[in-house]
Sequence to fold (240 residues):
Amino acid sequence: MNHRSIMLLVCLAPLGAAAQQTAEQTGQAAQMNLNALATGIPAVLPHNSSEGLNGSPYLEPRWLMARLRTSASKPLAPVALKYDVLAQRLLMRPDAARTDSLQLDDQLVVGFELNAPATATAPARIRHFRRFTETADRQQQGEYVEVLHEGRYTLLKRYTKQFVPAKEPQAYSYGPRLDQIRDQNQYFLLRPDKTLVPLKLTLKTLQAAAPELALKTVPGATKASTDVEWAAVLAAAEKK
Fold:
């Protein structure tokens, strides 16, 4: 190794150490910012006097890694997250070795991204959620909606769940008394003029809400059934 190479390594060494120190400080700050959002152990969902529960209060029963976005634009460390749709709260698990969870104070949270792993029917993907700011209902404006497609038109999915307690046993009734949590999801199309149109995911209703798009000409439009497939149809139509 010549003298010039030695001098170059000597000069680069402090830069590498400084970069590593900066990265560590950023990581520590991100973790501290995330910890500051924790409010404590969440309450247990009531089950009344039933013999079980059918359904789940969560968007996903699994803990999924997520990246939170805040209005303060502070960096936040990735965290294992659950979205409790029934109670409209975000739960985090700060350590994979722990079995308990913490509720987030999400007043500063404007959205989050979930890393959804691959399944037997769908590849791995990142799911985007943000506040439902476009709705006229002030109570719903604080809820999170999933952005299925975002372009000139934006396809949104609002998740809602209803808790139905088990009925009192009747004469000649058999089987366990189960509480139920029922899904009551809704879809909306946000038009370029900022009009929010509630709809069902069918070719007819989508075409009526987006008359400028030639949805019928998109391959697979007549066979689309899932919201992911309809999001792909909208994306393809907007490219034409």
In short: The two ends are 59 Å apart (CA to CA).
